[in-house]
Amino acid sequence: MIREYQAKDLDAIMTIWLQGNEQAHNFIDPEFFKQNFELVKMLIPMSTIYVQDINGVVVGFIGLTENYISGLYVEKNSRHQGTGAALVEKAKQRHNELMVHVYKQNSDAINFYLSQNFEIVGESINEETNHPEILMRCNVEHKVKIGKCAL
C-alpha cells in the first residue's frame, strides 16, 4: 500500500536512503552520505513523502518538493518488483510534470526513469559532489473522467 509519510517512518526511510545511496552511487565517497545523514533526516518531513508499506514495513519511498523528485529509494530486496514504478505513478497523479536529477554514472536509475516516460532534458555538474548529472522530465497527461468516459 502506498500511503503518506508518518513520523514513525523516519528511521526506516533513513536506513533505505543511506543504503540506497551507498549502493547506487559507489563512485561517491560513502562518507559524503554519512556526513549528510542528519541534514537529510531533518529535511525529510519538510517534503511530500509517500511510502510503500507492506504489512507495516516501509520498503520504499519517494520524496517530492513540488514537482521535483528529491529522492526515490527502494530497499534492496524489494527492487524490480514494481515498487519504484508505483511510487512514481503516485507522484504522477499529483503533478502535470515531474523533474529529477540523476547522476550520469547511475545507468540503472536513468534506464528506470526512461522506462517511466521521462526524457533527458539537460546535463550539469552536481555542485556538492562534482559529478556529472542529467536532468530528466516527464510530462504527465491526466485523463478527465466524466461518468464512464475518459476525455
From TrEMBL:
Positions of the N-acetyltransferase domain: 1-141
Q: Which GO terms describe its molecular function?
A: acyltransferase activity, transferring groups other than amino-acyl groups
> Does Ion transport appear among the keywords?
no
Pfam families named among the record's database cross-references? Acetyltransf_7 (PF13508)
Q: Which PROSITE patterns match?
A: GNAT
Supply the alphabetized keyword list.
Acyltransferase, Transferase
Q: Which InterPro entries match?
A: Acyl_CoA_acyltransferase (IPR016181), GNAT_dom (IPR000182)
Name of this chain's protein: GNAT family N-acetyltransferase
The source organism is Gilliamella apis
